[in-house]
Design brief:
The chain is mostly helical. It has helices at about 5-30, 35-60, 80-90, 95-120, 125-140, 150-175, 185-210, 220-225, 235-245, 250-285. It has a single domain, classed as Na+/H+ antiporter like domain (Na+/H+ antiporter like fold), CATH 1.20.1530.
């Protein structure tokens, strides 16, 4: 792969994104929801369930096909875009719901980094190297929390839009595939739209009902159900995983990217509808 100007910008953007993620993760571990064992176990296991179910769905649909290598594409929630939709349509929800969404997304993005280290680092792809470097630096950056607000602004308003714009431009400029009947499209969209919310919420239900962990006191199940589809917004990290999985195959790579876009937009729209329904219930109460 030629490391041209576009790839350099994407690598820098991914580095900034995962640097901010590393700082956020360190804060959650030391002072946030991950610092309290019984509350931490819920989003941690919910994140694991929210990754496993989409991987299983995608792998079943693509079993025996060369496209089976794309199992990692639909497994990680895009924390920035999910929080943006929640901020626009779910301001009425308790702060604890936002914290739950943030923690699950941060944990599954962090677990994705571990998967990259295990399965993709040996390929020396720039995106994998820069993502690993970013989260590692964020975890150990002295006084990193003081820079968190600035880092989040740079990541959300500069790095992620640049990464998204370049990736989409490359996707549509070089689109060579067919979405209709594609196992990649079916696997990615179903895994994101259905697999992510089922995995996160189903695991949360099992963990809390078993008594292994508990939710914050002001988090209601109706609130969690209303944000379920937000976990299916998998844009940024999914695009990166698409490149790591299919970067050498332009046709499959472009199909996977467009499928991620379809899955993310569908999940966002479903979340907005669910949040509006939940909002009417809040108003009545």
């Amino acid at each position: 792969m030629v490391f041209d100007a576009a790839e350099a910008i994407k690598a820098a953007a991914i580095f900034v994104f995962f640097l901010s993620l590393g700082v956020e993760l360190r804060h959650e571990i030391t002072h946030g929801s991950l610092a309290k064992p019984r509350q931490a176990i819920v989003p941690i296991l919910a994140a694991v369930g929210g990754m496993l179910v989409p991987v299983i769905i995608y792998s079943i649909i693509n079993s025996g096909l060369p496209s089976a290598t794309g199992w990692g594409v639909p497994m990680s929630t895009d924390v920035a875009f999910a929080l943006a939709v929640l901020a626009a349509a779910g301001r009425f929800l308790p702060k604890s719901v936002r914290v739950f969404l943030l923690t699950v997304a941060v944990v599954d993005d962090s677990l994705t980094i571990l998967i990259i280290a295990l399965f993709f680092a040996s390929s020396f792809q720039p995106l994998s190297v820069f993502s690993l470097a970013g989260v590692a630096l964020g975890l150990f950056l002295p006084q990193g929390r003081k820079a968190a607000s600035w880092l989040n602004q740079v990541a959300n308003w500069a790095a992620l839009p640049l990464f998204a714009a370049i990736t989409l431009w490359q996707t549509f400029a070089n689109f060579q595939g067919q979405l209709a009947g594609s196992a990649i499209t079916l696997g990615v969209v179903l895994a994101m739209v259905f697999g992510k919310p089922i995995g996160v919420l189903g695991t949360t239900w099992l963990v809390t009902k078993s008594g292994l962990g508990k939710l914050a006191a002001d988090v209601k199940w109706a609130d969690l159900l209303s944000i379920g589809s937000l976990f299916g917004i998998c844009f940024t990290v999914a695009m990166m995983m698409s490149e790591l999985s299919f970067g050498e195959n332009p046709s499959e790579h472009s199909i996977a990217n467009v499928s991620v876009l379809i899955g993310s937009l569908t999940s966002a729209l479903l979340a907005v509808v669910a949040l509006q329904i939940r909002k009417r219930s809040h108003v009545r109460n």
